[in-house]
Amino acid sequence: MKILFVEDDPSFANALLISLRARGNEVSHVATGGNAISKFLTGHFDVVVLDLGLSDMDGIEVLKRIRSKSNTPIVVLSARVGEVSKVDALDAGADDYVTKPFGLGEFLARLRAAHRRGSPGPTDRVLKVGSRMIDLSSKQIVTDDGRPPKLTPTEWALMEVLALENNRIVSREELLRRVWGENFTHEYDYLRVYIAQLRRKIEDDPATPAYIITESGVGYRLMAEVVVKD
Question: Per the confidence metrics, is the pTM higher than 0.70?
Fold first, then answer.
């Protein structure tokens, strides 16, 4: 992978750089938000690894700036704990949120999963949910007002699994395995946060969802009309 790594703690950055490069990744490291934005705009990266606690600007602002230009997967690193911080990062366009300190093996697995989600397999399926059309091939949601919500690569990967299994219950374990990988099949709270994010973008009333239905204790089901089959 070609990785843009944004981290202002020198000792932490050096340790992670050694581990990433030892596994064959090409890593560009910057220590400030301003340099991160400039570097991203002048290069091509498979994944962005972004620390939120930067010295010159809030990492959330860096995240928003990068996301406004690209759907490149962004994995957030942060010492900030709690669901509010995670939701803020996800709302800004993050694909994953890793809390410091973390295990290297888990982090690398999350990085690989983010990269896979950034390059999903082709599908021509188009679905209708209310007044919205979900085109999986172009990764777009078409709306009547011409202001479609933007989905992150992770949200698209989750949407794609639900769409391919349309009208069928998909267990929580299956969703976690197919979107995040075998090591994440019990991250139920994690899945709940992403389902909530997806509902905010496609449901008319996210508090009473009509399309992404919770099957209590089992999983989720997408109820949509298939307009074009793949």
Answer: no
- The answer on 132 and 112 residing in a single domain is no
Can you give the CATH number for the domain in which 137 is found? 1.10.10.10
**Local confidence band at 152 (pLDDT 50, 70, 90 cut-offs):** confident
**How far is CA 229 from each of CA 51, 126, 156, 178, 179, rounded to the nearest angstrom?**
40, 7, 17, 21, 21
Same domain, 163 and 83: no
Mean local confidence (pLDDT), 189-202: 90
Report the number of distinct structural domains present in the chain. Answer: 2
Yes or no: say if 7 and 29 are a contact pair by the CB < 8 Å rule: yes
Q: What is the pLDDT of residue 147?
A: 80
Residue with tokens 């990266």: 45
CA–CA distance, 198 with 203 (Å, rounded to integer): 8
Is the confidence at residue 172, as pLDDT, over 70?
yes
* Residue 130 and residue 113 share a domain: no
Residue 113 CA to residue 22 CA, distance in Å, equals 19
State which residues form the domain around 29. 2-117
CB neighbours of residue 194 within 10 Å = 23
- Amino acid making up residue 220: Y
